[in-house]
Amino acid sequence: MEDGILKAVSTDGSLKAVIASTTNLVADARRRHNLSFTATAALGRALTAGVLLAPLVARKGQVALKFQGDGPLGKILVDASPEGTVRGFVDNPQIELPLNALGNFDVGSAVGKTGYLHVTIDQGFGRSHTSTVELATGEIGEDVNQYLVNSDQTGSVLVVGTHLDTNGVEAAGGLIVQLLPDHTEESICRLENNISTFGTFTFLMRRGMDLEQILARILDGFTLQTVTPIHPISFKCKCSDERFFEALKVLNPADLISMAEEEGKAEGRCHFCNEHYYVNKERLLSLARSY
């Protein structure tokens, strides 16, 4: 299945949903950051959560998720836009832990059960707002659901998953469902029952089901209407050679000349995508002379 995101509403006006397949972008993140299996599961869930939240809470701007727990992974930071682009990193990408008692990657212990999730929403108007909640379990999805319960997104539930085998990322994706004002007690009960019995998101993906089929399976009993065609999503960073060069302009001429003479170049690395950037000696000296 190609990566993509799909929006739908129920015809009775009781709920809306956003569903996404993120297998390829999670695999891209794993390659870029050389992630361990545990780190891939954690960052993959966080990237998927960002992709799902962005079109709901930041329609013209972006949403940033920062998981700061006391586990060995350290900080996880994700930055997503409603256009379907997302980037992110984890402080300690090589951390690997034994499987938990259920035979799953122990993301909760890796992230830590003590700490905070910071959600920053930028609507694109020059101002941003940050909400902070305590980590619920460190399992990413449950922590984001805790944020949704404590925010204005009343009646929302998020499901995310990342499945890996020995060859890498086999399936990744997720779903967020939000109750609308016309919902009834019956629709709440039906949604709760569906969420508790459908299994795992990645299991449905691995069975070969596409996004519309998975949506129909999880929201069984609701008549759904897609709002938009499937929109492509990808791991995409904002960094560039020009941005790195612009950042060098904060240095004074003496520092630029010293760097040029001693190192022969300036070198930088983007934390979000792990791309490396270089500025050669001649360009450094030219920048120093331009002051």
Explain this structure to me?
- By secondary structure, the protein is α+β, with helices and mostly antiparallel strands.
- 34% of the residues lie in helices and 29% in strands.
- It has ten helices and 13 strands.
- The chain has helices at 23-33, 37-57, 107-111, 141-150, 185-197, 201-206, 211-218, 241-247, 253-262, 281-289; strands at 4-10, 15-21, 62-69, 76-80, 85-90, 115-122, 128-134, 156-165, 168-179, 224-226, 234-235, 265-269, 276-280.
- A six-stranded mixed beta sheet has the order 7-6-3-4-5-11, covered by helices on one side.
- Helix 1 crosses helix 2 (37-57) and helix 9 runs antiparallel to helix 10 (281-289).
- The N and C termini lie far apart (52 Å).
- 41% of the residues are buried.
Blueprint of the fold:
Elements: E1 4-10, E2 15-21, H1 23-33, H2 37-57, E3 62-69, E4 76-80, E5 85-90, H3 107-111, E6 115-122, E7 128-134, H4 141-150, E8 156-165, E9 168-179, H5 185-197, H6 201-206, H7 211-218, E10 224-226, E11 234-235, H8 241-247, H9 253-262, E12 265-269, E13 276-280, H10 281-289
Parallel strand pairs: 5-11
Antiparallel strand pairs: 1-2, 1-10, 2-9, 3-4, 3-6, 4-5, 6-7, 8-9, 12-13
Helix pairs in contact: 1-2, 9-10
Note the main attributes of this structure.
single chain; 291 residues; alpha+beta; 6-stranded mixed β-sheet; 5-stranded antiparallel β-sheet; 34% helix; 29% strand
Strand order of the largest sheet: 7-6-3-4-5-11
What integer is the average pLDDT?
92
Radius of gyration: 21 Å
Could you estimate the helical fraction of the residues in percent?
Answer: 25-40%
Strand content: 25-35%
Point out poorly predicted stretches.
Answer: none
Large-scale geometry: elongated
Write the H/E string, N to C.
Answer: EEHHEEEHEEHEEHHHEEHHEEH
Question: Roughly how many Å apart are the termini?
Answer: 52 Å
Largest sheet: 6 strands, mixed
Number of strand elements:
13
Count of individual helical segments: 10
